[in-house]
Design brief:
This protein is α+β, with helices and mostly antiparallel strands and 90 residues long. It is built from one helix and five strands, in the order ββαβββ.
Length: 90
């Protein structure tokens, strides 16, 4: 299961959805990236659905998204990759 997480302007809590296939989540990631970088797209609405929770739907304005990330959720405890970005200093 892959999670796509959005950080929104002026919101301390991220929004996230889950997709079963990496290709699905990568396509959405690319669509969001192009939507937030296109000039003049101030009113574009992005709608997202979740594979894990079937009734979960999210709609957000592209101009309110400040970051987007993909990470894999593992069902094995302790083996899951931590979401976010980190520096590994050796």
């Amino acid at each position: 299961m892959y999670s796509l997480e959005l950080s929104l302007r002026y919101s301390p809590f991220p929004l996230s959805i889950q997709k079963k296939e990496f290709e699905d989540v990568k396509r959405i990631y690319d669509d969001i990236k192009s939507s937030i970088t296109e000039p003049g797209q101030t009113s574009k609405l992005i709608e997202l659905s979740c594979d894990k929770v079937k009734d979960k739907l999210i709609a957000v304005r592209a101009q309110e998204i400040i970051s987007v990330q993909i990470y894999e959720k593992s069902s094995v405890a302790g083996g899951a990759k931590r979401p976010g970005f980190s520096l590994n200093i050796d």
